[in-house]
Amino acid sequence: MGTLPDIPVLLIDGYNILGVWSQHQPGNPPASIFEDRQTLEIAKHQLVDSLANYSAFQGYQARIVFDAQNRKEKGACEPYTQSLDIYYTDYNQTADSYIELYCAKARARSNRIIVATSDRAQQLTVLGYGAEWLSALQLVKEIANTTVKIRAKQNSKKRSPSRLLAHSLDPEAKRKLEQLRMG
Fold first, then answer.
1. Cβ pair 84, 91 in contact under 8 A
2. Residues in Cβ contact with 106 at an 8 Å cutoff, skipping those fewer than 6 apart
3. CATH of the domain spanning 9-182, picked from 3.30.930, 3.40.50, 3.30.60, 3.60.20
4. Backbone φ and ψ of 176, nearest 5°
5. pLDDT, tens digit, for every residue of 124-142?
6. DSSP assignments along the chain, one per residue
């Protein structure tokens, strides 16, 4: 992930966040999303979409990291948007170890690094490397707040008075329309 020194990097422990995120989505059944492969994939896709919007809105270069569960191949990075990559770790590598190694290597750079996880051991480790920490619940709340802000911004553009036909007419046309309206 190539980043510019002034762009904050958000590293997300994928499955750690996914568990909390799915519990806070309306209409989700109380059963664990990790029990059913199809439900898990749907939840992952929804989370990644939400993170893409969140990271773009916040100005972060984000990477969501998933453990190499049931994968025998080498780790892979899939660009999702300009502001979000999906990373699958190497076989037998955890998301925790990947994130910790990333923070250790980035220590010398001036990037602001934020790690989103609720894993206490990982929290302490990344703080030791100079990264910031964001709990899973905090990230879920920030995503929700950002979604509300994005929708409000989009709705205000839709309701903009300058987009109405009456505001784009010259004064003479407005006068004639007013005469027609008044009879």
1. no
2. 9, 113, 129, 131
3. 3.40.50
4. -65, -40
5. 999 999 999 999 999 999 9
6. ----TTS-EEEEEHHHHHHHHHHTSTT--SS-GGG-HHHHHHHHHHHHHHHHHHHHHHT-EEEEEE--TT--SPPEEEEEETTEEEEEPPTT--HHHHHHHHHHHHTTS---EEEE---HHHHHHHHHTT-EEE-HHHHHHHHHHHHHHHHHHHHHHHT-GGGSHHHHS-HHHHHHHHHHHH-
Which residues have a Cβ under 8 Å from the Cβ of 174 and sit 6 or more positions away?
Answer: 166
* pTM for this model (two decimals): 0.78
CA distances from 13 to 51, 87, 95, 164 (A): 12, 10, 6, 46
